[in-house]
Amino acid sequence: MSTNPPKIRYISESFIKPQYALEESKRPLYLTPWDLAMLSGKYMQKDFLFTKPPASNSQEDFIKSLLDRLKHSLSVTLLHFYPLAGCLVTQKNENPPSSLIFVDCSAGAKFIYADLDMTISDILSPIDAQGNNISITRPPIDKRGFPDGVSTIIKLPFTHQDEFISRFKAPKLIRERTFQFSSESIAKLKAKANAESNNKISSFQTLSALVWSVTMASSPRFNVYENEFGMGIAVALCCGNANKFDVKVSSYQGREGGGSIDLDVCLLPESMSALESDEEFMDAVSLSH
Fold first, then answer.
1. What angle do CA 75, 76, 78 make, to 5 degrees?
2. pLDDT at 76
């Protein structure tokens, strides 16, 4: 990959609201103490990479149709998860000095269309190796967790966001790789681990031990690849720059399903190089990017 990566070209930006107006979305959504504690957390950033449509199809028509379908699907989804169409609002008070933070659910979810002159192989190249009547089975609980008789309005004794929000910056040298483990590979690792132990060891425990990480983010029960967006199964899943730090490992159900697992690993360059040079580890890896 070039040392001067191409720039992203922004084409359009819009705000998507629920398919029809909801009475609940017209009222402020006040934050609970747990919500307020998460203000310093960064948004989750997940990127799906898909193959382009066949060359015989019109690229312009395909993109227009895809964008229309994505916007429509998002508007229907926001009927059930209307707070995701909102934005945080801060009201400052001088007497007494305080800040009230809540969600304005009427703003709309930002939808950005942009392009980038890169191929999937560019993105996945190794770095350190050498109106619809739609229902959902479990509707979200939108009622906030306040005890009866307790005010839903919590004012913070601050007048500037820097007084209560921490700005975490990930080290610039962090390297990220995704290692894919097939169900067959994990089964072999599990059999070997159980043969050498008096205790029963699960597949996930075996994989955690292989990368020397007993704690992981996310879960292999989370099937991220079922989110097809009308383009088939994604080629790969990538994560954004948020919440990246040394020795962070996230696990997801693998693309092939059936017990396969993907591990998204963040390490310092020298540690990543050492991991990729570990023959036992790389022998168990089915694919990495």
1. 65
2. 93
